[in-house]
Design brief:
heterodimer, A: 352 residues, mainly alpha, two-stranded antiparallel sheet, 1% strand, B: 170 residues, Four Helix Bundle (Hemerythrin (Met), subunit A), 6 helices, globular
Chain lengths: 352, 170
C-alpha cells in the first residue's frame, strides 16, 4: 500500500514537472520558431541559444508589481487564474505516457497516473470546467475589455466542444468502443494508428483543439488589436503568468491527446520488430522509455505545428469563427460519424 | 472512525456541502456568486453519483450541467450585469407567495421521496450497472422507446428555440 502510494506520488510529480518544463520551453521554442519564420534571430542573450530565456521570463513575472484593481471582487479575481491553471494541469492525469513495465519481482508499473475507464469523458469534463477560469477572471476584473474577452472565450469554447465531442465519438467507435485512454492506445499497437481510419475526424479535432486552447487563428478572447489584452487585461505579475502559462500547458496536453488518440501514442511503426532486433522482450523498462521517447517526439511535432499555424494564419473575424464552428465543423463531424459507422460495420467492429 | 465506514463519511461530507452550497445559492445577494455556488452544488451531486457507482452519470452531470448549462447561465448574467443596486425590490405579497409556492414544492418532493420506498429497484441490482457499457446496453435495448421519445422532445425544444431566436421567419 505504502509502496503504491509512493509510486503514484512519483508519477504525479513527474507529470507535473514535465507539464511545467514543457510549457516553459514551449515559450522559448515559440519565440525561436516565430523568429525562424520571420527571418529573425530570436532570443539569444540568456545562455546558449537563449535557452535560459524561460527562466528569465519567469523571474521577471515573479518580481513584477502585483496589482489588484480596487473595484474587483478580490476572491474571484485570484480564483480565476488559479482555476485555469488547475484544470490545465488536471488533464495530464489520464494520459498514458508509456507502456507499463514489469520488474524482476513481478510487480507491474504503468506510466500513467490513473487509468479510469471513462478517461475520455473525464478529459471533456475537465476541459469544460476550464472555461470558468477565464470567465471568472474576466468578470472579476470589472473591465469592459476583460468581460468581452471572457464572453468570447466561453462562447467559443462551448461552440467548438460540440464538434470536438462528435469527432471523438467517431474515434471511440473506431477503437472498439472503449473510453479508457490506455486501451485506445493499446489497440493501435495491435493494428494501425487511428489516423488511417479517421483522417477527417483528426482534422476536425485539430481545428477544435486550436480553438479550445485559444490559439491563433482563434485567439479572439485575447486579441490585442481589439481588446487590449482580452480577459487578462487587468492582470499583472504571476497571475498574468498563470494565464499565459496555462495556455502553453493546454497546448502540450492537447498535443499529447492528439498523439495518443490518432497517432498511436507511445507506439511507432514496426515497434515490435525494432524491439526484437535490439533484443528487448515484453515488460522491459527500456521499452517503456523508448515508447515514451516516441510519444514525446510526436508531442513536440504537434506543438510545433500549433506554433507554425499561429505565425502563418491571420485571425478570424468573430462571425467567421461562429460560422466555421456551427455551420462547417459540426455538419462535417456528423458526416464523419455516419461514414465511420458504415466503415466500421463492414470492418466488423460493430455488432448488432 | 467513530464506527462509520469511509463511504458513510464521504456521504455525510458531500451531503453537508451540497446542502450548504444549495443554501448559499439562495441566500447570496450577487447573482454571479449564486451561479458559482450552484456549480459547486453540482460537483457535490456528481460526488454522490460516484458513491453510487454511476461514473458515467457523474461525469456527464459535470460536462452537461457544470460545463455547459451553467456557463450559459453565467454568460447571460454577466452580460446583463445584475448586481445589488439594480435588483428590483420585491413587495411583501410577492415574498409570501414565493414562500408558499416553495413550501408546496417541498411537500411534493418529500412526498415523492417517501414514495420511492415502495419502488422495487433491485431488478438492476448489479453494482456495475452505472458503467458506460452496461448503461448503454440497457438504454438502447430495454428503454429504447423512452430514450428516443426524450430525444424527440429535446429536438422539438431546439427547433422552438431557433424559431424564437430568428428575427424574421420567411
Amino acid at each position: 500500500m505504502i509502496a503504491f502510494v509512493i509510486y503514484k506520488f512519483i508519477v504525479c510529480v513527474i507529470v507535473f514537472g514535465l507539464s511545467l518544463a514543457v510549457a516553459a520551453y514551449s515559450t522559448w521554442w515559440e519565440r525561436k520558431l516565430s523568429a525562424l519564420l520571420q527571418d529573425r534571430v530570436g532570443p539569444n542573450r540568456a545562455g546558449p541559444f537563449g535557452l535560459l530565456q524561460p527562466l528569465a521570463d519567469g523571474g521577471k513575472m515573479f518580481f513584477k508589481e502585483e496589482i489588484i484593481p480596487n473595484v474587483s471582487n478580490r476572491f474571484l479575481f485570484v480564483l480565476g487564474p488559479s482555476l485555469f491553471m488547475l484544470t490545465a494541469l488536471m488533464t495530464g492525469s489520464v494520459i498514458p505516457w508509456g507502456k507499463s513495465f514489469t520488474t524482476d519481482s513481478g510487480s507491474t508499473y504503468s506510466f500513467q497516473i490513473t487509468d479510469i475507464n471513462i478517461g475520455v469523458l473525464y478529459l471533456f469534463g475537465v476541459v469544460s470546467i476550464g472555461v470558468y477560469g477565464i470567465m471568472i477572471g474576466g468578470w472579476a476584473s470589472n473591465n469592459k475589455y476583460a468581460l468581452l474577452g471572457a464572453i468570447r472565450a466561453s462562447s467559443q469554447m462551448i461552440s467548438y466542444e460540440v464538434a470536438m465531442g462528435i469527432s471523438v465519438i467517431a474515434l471511440i467507435i473506431t477503437s472498439g468502443g472503449t473510453l479508457s485512454l490506455s486501451e485506445i492506445v493499446e489497440q493501435q499497437d495491435a493494428g494501425v494508428a487511428n489516423i488511417v481510419w479517421q483522417p477527417l475526424g483528426f482534422l476536425i479535432f485539430f481545428i477544435c483543439a486550436l480553438a479550445e486552447t485559444n490559439r491563433a487563428p482563434f485567439d479572439l478572447p485575447e486579441c490585442e488589436s481589439e481588446l487590449v489584452g482580452g480577459y487578462h487585461t487587468e492582470y499583472s505579475s504571476m497571475k498574468l503568468g498563470l494565464f499565459l502559462f496555462a495556455e502553453y500547458i493546454n497546448m502540450f496536453i492537447s498535443s499529447a491527446i492528439m498523439a495518443a488518440f490518432y497517432f498511436g501514442g507511445y507506439n511507432f511503426p514496426w515497434a515490435h520488430e525494432f524491439y526484437q532486433w535490439i533484443g528487448l522482450h515484453d515488460g522491459s523498462v527500456w521499452i517503456s522509455i523508448i515508447g515514451f521517447g516516441a510519444f514525446f517526439t510526436k508531442i513536440c511535432i504537434f506543438i510545433s505545428v500549433f506554433m507554425w499555424v499561429r505565425w502563418t494564419l491571420p485571425r478570424f473575424r468573430y462571425d467567421q469563427l461562429m460560422h466555421l464552428g456551427w455551420k462547417i465543423l459540426l455538419p462535417l463531424s456528423l458526416l464523419n460519424l455516419a461514414i465511420t459507422v458504415v466503415v466500421e460495420y463492414f470492418r466488423g467492429n460493430i455488432h448488432f | 472512525m467513530l464506527g462509520y465506514t469511509i463511504t458513510q463519511w464521504l456521504f455525510g461530507i458531500l451531503s453537508f456541502l451540497a446542502i450548504m452550497f444549495a443554501l448559499m445559492v439562495v441566500f447570496s445577494r450577487n447573482p454571479v456568486n449564486s451561479v458559482l455556488y450552484l456549480v459547486m452544488t453540482f460537483f457535490c451531486i456528481a460526488g454522490h453519483y460516484l458513491l453510487l457507482n454511476a461514473q458515467f452519470l457523474a461525469v456527464v452531470h459535470i460536462v452537461v450541467y457544470a460545463g455547459a448549462i451553467m456557463v450559459l447561465f453565467l454568460f447571460v448574467i454577466m452580460l446583463m450585469d445584475l448586481n445589488q443596486d439594480s435588483e428590483p425590490q420585491r413587495t411583501m405579497v410577492t415574498k409570501i407567495i414565493a414562500g408558499v409556492a416553495g413550501g408546496l414544492m417541498l411537500f411534493v418532493l418529500v412526498g415523492s421521496l417517501k414514495g420511492t420506498e415502495q419502488l422495487n429497484l433491485s431488478s438492476y441490482g448489479s453494482s456495475q450497472i452505472g458503467t458506460v457499457k452496461n448503461l448503454g446496453k440497457v438504454l438502447f435495448s430495454e428503454f429504447l422507446f423512452p430514450f428516443e421519445i426524450a430525444s424527440v422532445l429535446l429536438l422539438a425544444a431546439m427547433v422552438g428555440a431557433i424559431m424564437i431566436g430568428k428575427k424574421d421567419i420567411k
